[in-house]
Fold:
Amino acid sequence: MDHQQLSFAGLTGSLKAAGEATRLRILALLAEAELTVSDLTEILRQSQPRLSRHLRLLAEAGLVERFREGSWAFFRLGERSGPADLARVVIGRLKADDAIVVRDRERLFRQLDAARECPAVWISGPPGAGKTSLAASYLKARRLPSIWYDVDSGDTDPASFFHHLTQAAPRTRAKTAALLTFAPEYLSELTAFTRRYFRAFFQRARSVAYRHAVALINSGSALGGS
Structure:
């Protein structure tokens, strides 16, 4: 991969922005997931005005980006710039078992613990942001039973998608509704079929393990990139 070259002033500015303890911790967390200021406040245990100032400095240096989804403002690592490349290089030099990194990751996991009270959790981020490693490390740390479905461009065929998901579904002796087999006649009522299918799917999952975790990961462009 070609990396964008930086001017002397640009490089020193990016290094100064990243070379501060709190800002480096922010970069490491944003490498795991896109987060709001409120998320970072909970994880880093610092005031919102202070973290907002750190985020502004990181954004001005091109290391992070701010974007909105509805009424929420999220931050993520920069995607296509010289400073963004530098941020990933710096984060890549951090030891995964460093005490500070481990502590912050555990606090991030607690955010996911709280999010699991919702019917679904969506982890969003640009390609290479660390969504897959975050989900995998969270499931491992929490010892959650899981079904991992790697969605790619080949899953644009509903019949193939539902067939392989059924193959991955947990086996149970409990009396639960059978998982429907997709047929061409269901194409005209795909939403209704999907609702019925997943109702039976999660009923089966609950009969096997409490809050069975299901990970649907997009590794290509089948779902539009995130």
User: Anything to note?
Assistant: The first helix runs from residue 8 to 18.
